[in-house]
Amino acid sequence: MLDIKLIRDNPDAVHAGVANKQVEVDVDRILELDQGRRTCIVEVEDLKQQRNANSKEIGGLMKEGKIDEAESRKSAVRQIGEQIEALDAKQAGIDQELNLLLLSMPNLAHETVPVGADESANPVLRTYGSPTDFDFEPKAHWDLGEALGVMDFQRSAKMTGSGFPLLKGAGARLSRALTQFMLDLHTNDHGYTEVLPPFLVNSDSVTGTGQLPKFPDEMYHLEADDLWLIPTAEVPLTNYYRDEIMAESLPVCFTGYTPCFRREAGAAGKMTRGFNRVHQFDKVELVKFVEPEDSYHELEQLTANAEAVLQKLDLHYRVIELCTGDLSFASAKTYDIELWAPGQELWLEVSSCSNFEDFQARRAGIRYRNAAGKVGFVHTLNGSGVALPRLIVAILENYQQADGSIVIPEALRSYMGGLEKLEA
Length: 424
Hints:
- By secondary structure, this protein is α+β, with helices and mostly antiparallel strands.
- It folds into two domains: 4-103, Helix Hairpins (Orthogonal Bundle), CATH 1.10.287.40; 119-422, Bira Bifunctional Protein, Domain 2 (BirA Bifunctional Protein, domain 2).
- The protein is built from twelve helices and 16 strands.
- The chain has helices spanning 4-9, 11-20, 27-63, 67-103, 141-148, 153-159, 170-189, 203-208, 234-238, 295-312, 359-364, 388-398, and strands spanning 124-128, 193-194, 200-202, 221-222, 227-229, 244-246, 252-261, 280-290, 317-321, 333-341, 346-355, 366-369, 375-377, 379-387, 406-407, 421-422.
- Strands 1-9-10-11-14-8-7-2 form an eight-stranded mixed sheet.
């Protein structure tokens, strides 16, 4: 949520920032409601002063025996009370509409973010490694996985529907090994505290991180309990400190494994085949709570932590910076990390590392005390560290052999019980 003072003092910049994010929000209506709210507050305070003054005089008039004048003042006090009640009701209506509009207002992009309409304007910042050099025609992961017996798309579709994948045997073990490998890396080498959070959250939680009220159709909702299946561990981990003044020294860094559930849809084609885009997937998440002046340094560190996973697995990837039109609703600046999938000749996003500045903290009421003892809003950051499905895709497609077997990356072999290859 943006600070209303920021919108009030910089309306032209806010208009431009919203336009750059390709989002339609009635900024002028927000300003109109804000002015109406402040007018109500001033009028109510004035009326309360009048009521207090009249109330004080009533006692004196009664003592002096001026009964009629005292009764007249009492009548005036009652009328003032009715005016105050009417203004309070008016302000409550304004507050409700204003709050809904503010919750629908996107975060503004940081000044360093390139302006652009869509992903075509995203610059590539760096690449790591080189594409695998095959002396045969590489296959896509769905062919490799089913031939090896580690994936079963037909039976998972029978159980649930498309977009809900199933791994078995060595495939399931590979997923478990990757999860343990990433958690160990982030806790032992990068200093994160591991958290295993609930996989269902309430509406206040998804409002705090920015999924509500804008994107209810992208999540799975249990209406009877008003609980939401988490779209990412970002939601429960960020809400750990909701409505609190943090007592811990900053930065605080959390990592956690969770399954994730999303309704996101896509057009038919390669991007919806196999594990490319699914409704249920596992992920290791990274979340940071930091002091405002450190947040952009911490974003670089968080991105490096996610990249370290891919470097240890010796996978070819690139880092791109999202332009204004491709940024998420809540993000001020984001780096996407994309893995190369040679069997499909596609770049697949495996991590999105974002700085939300104080946008989520304002929505969720997450504050801290600085060195001077002043209370303010923290900055929150998160990124995948990393998502499992496309990581598995990249391993299968990059480490495939001519006979259809898959070489296990050396960094994972101890987690796979010494197994060096996936074979049929």
